[in-house]
């Protein structure tokens, strides 16, 4: 696991922070919604922010991917004509580029699932509050 983190490069740190933000927001909102304090617009906005930060993680993952592709292509352009290209090194470079995209999309998938469950709970509480 740590090996993949290190292979992902500099973008793995902000992706880790975003994953933590999504999990903390989900936990805080779950506590609010289970405590029946959740039918307010402020809680809905906080629940919606889970999906927003998940989407930011996905975009950041793609930025990391394309940065990795750029770095790999620079190495190919600089070293390739002089020494010949090692296909294993090129494949490793592209593999490293894909790690950030996979992590970013995984964060988005988890955020979307958490958002759906919490948004559904918020909707139930909001309906109950409007009926009373």
Overview features:
132 residues; mainly alpha; 4 helices; 89% helix
Describe this structure in words.
The chain is an all-alpha fold and 132 residues long. The protein has one domain (11-131). It has helices spanning 2-7, 12-34, 41-83, 87-131. Helix 2 packs antiparallel against helix 3. The longest helix is centred in the C-terminal third of the chain and has 45 residues, at 87-131. The radius of gyration is 20 Å and the shape is rod-shaped.
Q: What's the number of helices? A: 4
SSE topology string: HHHH
Global mean pLDDT: 86
Give the strand tally: 0
Q: How is the biggest beta sheet arranged? A: none
Low-confidence stretches: none
Structural class: mainly alpha
Radius of gyration: 20 Å
Shape: rod-shaped
How much helix, percentage-wise, in residues?
Answer: over 70%
**What is the total domain count?**
1
Cα distance, first to last residue? 50 Å
- Strand residue percentage: under 5%
Q: How would you briefly describe this protein structure?
A:
The chain is mainly α and 132 residues long. The protein has helices spanning 2-7, 12-34, 41-83, 87-131.
């Amino acid at each position: 696991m740590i090996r993949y983190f290190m292979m992902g490069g500099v973008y793995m740190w902000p992706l880790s922070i975003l994953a933590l933000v999504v999990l903390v927001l989900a936990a805080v909102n779950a506590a609010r919604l289970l405590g029946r304090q959740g039918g307010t617009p402020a809680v809905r906005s906080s629940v919606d922010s889970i999906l927003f930060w998940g989407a930011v993680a996905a975009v950041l993952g793609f930025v990391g991917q394309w940065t990795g592709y750029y770095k790999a292509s620079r190495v190919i352009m600089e070293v390739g004509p002089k020494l010949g290209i090692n296909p294993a090194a090129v494949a490793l470079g592209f593999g490293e580029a894909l790690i950030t995209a996979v992590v970013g999309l995984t964060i988005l998938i988890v955020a979307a699932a958490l958002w759906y469950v919490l948004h559904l709970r918020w909707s139930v509480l909001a309906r109950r509050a409007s009926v009373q």
